[in-house]
TrEMBL record:
Protein's UniProt name: Clathrin/coatomer adaptor adaptin-like N-terminal domain-containing protein
The entry's keywords: Membrane, Protein transport, Transport
Limits of the Clathrin/coatomer adaptor adaptin-like N-terminal domain: 37-451
Keyword Membrane in record: yes
A single BP term in Gene Ontology: vesicle-mediated transport
Pfam families: Adaptin_N
Natural source organism: Cuscuta campestris
GO CC, any one term: endomembrane system
SUPFAM superfamilies: ARM repeat
Entry similarity comment: Belongs to the adaptor complexes large subunit family.
Cell compartment(s), UniProt: Endomembrane system
Length: 455
């Protein structure tokens, strides 16, 4: 009986799979090279060309090398069929870097398609041109990107922003000013989709040209909540770096409050020891890093960029033209107010990385009295996947070392669950040890006992 039931279930599963495949191109993945692809590519019928190109893309998806069809595919870029053109561009995008010299055969066709009435065709042409990494056509690609940066289509302008890092990777010194000019144009765009792509291009192409950010700062902040999630992460980092570089740290912030503290305790792992920059030779913690020196470390890293600054010693003295006493006030500074206002809604983003980025802004720039607004969003993230929870707990651990009272009343959120991994359990216990108070110590001690018995 059970064997018959199993056979019936298997038959139903196969029938269901076949039903879902009806009307799709799924059959191409079963045996993609079972026909003469070369013959179909040279066919006079667009339907047969589509069939051949789909089979080529199916082979690529399965890891096969089909670059030998490149010359035949290039000829089909000039097809009047939108579907054939789209499939040909997808193939060329995959192999343009590997076969750049042959891709040059259709460069005139790409330039022609940049003027096509269909924005999709214009975008495909630009993406493929930017994918051909050859110095000889860098000037042509630059002209194409400049043209597309002012295109009426949002999608084409976004593709122009995405193409800038590819052109910049060619390292042509003469193009740098022109590329940065285009980045500035795209950062001033009215579309959030374009601004997000432009922010990524800025971070890749000219991360130290903060003049471009200052020129568009308010508009970027207003656009930030509408930018796509991964673009928000990049843009948050950029505008935070701009505010710190221009105005310095906020006097009322937790960062400056910690720097001003004189009570260091290296034995209990409390906030005082967590930000020590260097240990002395006998293993004891150095005396308090002065306020201006700590501020200098943070400010210079944001001003120069982490890649450049962190390659040097974190205790390197500031140059003579750097003023480490440059601070601002969250109450008086309009740029800081705008930054706080535009990042506050993002604390409840569905993307955990966006929440952490927004929480980081508030931790660095918000007055101490406003820090509690980051607590509930961070605790809400503890309901996410194991990987996300680990990253969130790592951040909470840093915050709790500096300001244990921030999470002290929420100690129950860090109790161990049976589904927690060992790494997450370890982090939760460490956080509990940091935020323990007289009123919660008994409950926390019981949690430690339960954990020890479960080992």
């Amino acid at each position: 009986m059970f064997s018959q039931f199993g056979a019936t279930a298997d038959s139903l599963s196969k029938a269901s799979t076949l039903a879902f495949r009806i009307g799709t191109d799924a059959h191409l993945y079963d045996d993609p090279d079972d026909v003469n692809i070369a013959t179909l590519l040279d066919s006079k019928f667009d339907s047969e060309k589509c069939e051949a190109l789909k089979r080529l893309l199916a082979l690529i998806a399965q890891g096969f090398e089909v670059s030998n069809f490149f010359p035949q595919v290039v000829k089909n870029v000039a097809s009047k069929s939108l579907e054939v053109k789209k499939l040909a561009y997808l193939y060329l995008l995959h192999y343009a870097e590997k076969r750049p010299n042959e891709a040059l055969l259709s460069i005139n066709c790409f330039q022609k398609d940049l003027g096509d009435p269909n924005p999709l065709v214009r975008a495909w042409a630009l993406r493929t041109m930017a994918g051909i990494r050859l110095h000889v056509i860098a000037a042509i690609v630059l002209v194409a990107i400049r043209k597309c940066a002012r295109d009426p289509s949002v999608y084409v302008r976004k593709c122009a922003a995405n193409a800038l890092p590819k052109l910049h990777d060619l390292r042509l010194e003469g193009n740098n000013d022109a590329i940065e000019e285009i980045v500035g144009i795209l950062l001033n765009d009215n579309s959030p989709a374009v601004v997000g792509a432009a922010a990524a291009a800025f971070a890749s192409v000219c991360p130290n040209n903060l003049f471009l950010i200052g020129r568009n700062f308010r508009k970027l902040c207003e656009t930030l909540p509408d930018v796509e999630e991964w673009g928000q992460i990049v843009l948050i980092g950029i505008i935070l770096r701009y505010v710190i570089a221009r105005h310095g740290l906020v006097k009322e912030s937790m960062m400056m409050s910690f720097c001003s503290s004189k009570d260091y305790n290296s034995e209990n792992g409390r906030p005082d020891s967590s930000f020590t920059l260097k240990d002395s030779t006998d293993g004891s913690v150095n005396s308090m890093v002065c306020e201006s020196e700590m501020a200098n470390v943070v400010m210079r890293s944001y001003f120069e960029g982490p890649d450049k600054y962190l390659s040097r010693s974190s205790l390197e003295k500031a140059s003579s033209d750097w003023d480490p006493t440059c601070f601002t006030s969250a109450i008086e500074n309009e740029d800081v107010k705008i930054l706080m206002k535009c990042t506050s809604p993002l604390l409840w983003s569905r993307n955990s990385a966006v929440v952490l980025a927004a929480a980081g802004v508030h931790w660095i720039m918000a007055p101490k009295g406003e820090l509690r607004r980051i607590v509930k969003p961070l605790l809400f993230l503890l309901r996410s996947s194991n990987a996300s929870r680990y990253v969130v707990l790592r951040n909470i651990q840093v915050f709790a070392k500096v300001l244990p009272s921030l999470f002290a009343s929420h100690f129950e959120d860090f109790f161990i669950s049976s589904t927690d991994s060992y790494q997450i359990k370890s982090l939760k216990l460490e956080i509990l040890s940091l935020i323990a108070t007289e009123s919660s110590i008994s409950s926390i001690f019981q949690e430690f006992q339960v954990f020890s018995f479960s080992l």
